[in-house]
Write a structure and sequence with these properties.
It contains 9 helices and 8 strands. It has 214 residues and is α/β, with parallel strands linked by helices. It is globular.
């Protein structure tokens, strides 16, 4: 499902063209890692965003991203601008918050923004503090003619699953797409693992293993 989310959101909404720049939130998570690697296969420059030097190194060295910026860095926004000298044509959104704030000004005219999640807001109990930025955001969307489209994978693109499975199966078999799983044993550990996921502690796809180890 995460691979399908990445493939469908990028190809159907992002519609990247060779030579364009794509930016990917949560770049070492199961969705983001897939998006960045597909972007490279389609001839794009891929700029990842991840939490910490280890994850950023993995995105570049193992997944083939052209750059990866640590969103925890105090100069994160400046680093994003330097890593995207020609602007950003596709931003694959799953985080929101300060990551979105840093990316929006870098979007090029006619940029596309597939939205599959907003993990930074999932535990929010009230609206963010500070000035209302809605008019600023809508102004950016209007003036730059940005396409922003949310999607729920099987509701929106379930009919494309056979096409995805055929293409992704070939890429995985040939080694063109890599994936990483983080195995946690015991259903009793699922709540803590899920909370850690929301806090960005996961490295790859978190999987709860139930039953005997093999």
């Amino acid at each position: 499902m995460p691979g399908f989310t990445g493939w469908a959101g990028l190809t159907q909404i992002g519609a990247p063209k060779p030579g364009e720049t794509i930016a990917v939130a949560a770049a070492t998570g199961p969705v983001g890692a897939t998006v960045g690697q597909i972007g490279k296969l389609l001839g794009c420059r891929a700029v990842g965003i991840a939490g910490g030097p280890e994850k950023c190194a993995y995105a570049v060295d193992e997944l083939g991203f052209d750059a990866c910026i640590d969103h925890k860095a105090p100069d994160f926004a400046d680093q994003m601008a330097k890593a995207s000298p020609d602007g950003i044509d596709v931003y694959f959104e799953s985080v929101g918050g300060k990551v979105l704030d840093a990316v929006i000004p870098l979007l090029n005219p006619h940029a596309r923004v597939p939205v599959c999640g907003l993990v930074s807001q999932y535990n929010a109990t009230q609206l963010p503090a500070g000035p209302d930025r809605m008019n600023w955001l809508m102004g950016q969307i209007l003036r730059k003619m940005i396409k922003v489209q949310g999607f729920i994978i099987f509701d929106s693109f379930g009919h494309l699953y056979p096409e995805f499975a055929k293409q992704m199966g070939a890429w995985v078999k040939s080694g063109k797409i890599k994936y990483r799983e983080e195995i946690i044993d015991g259903l009793e550990n699922a709540p803590e693992a899920f909370i850690g996921l929301l806090n960005g502690e996961n490295f790859g796809k978190r999987v709860i293993r139930v039953g005997n180890k093999k």
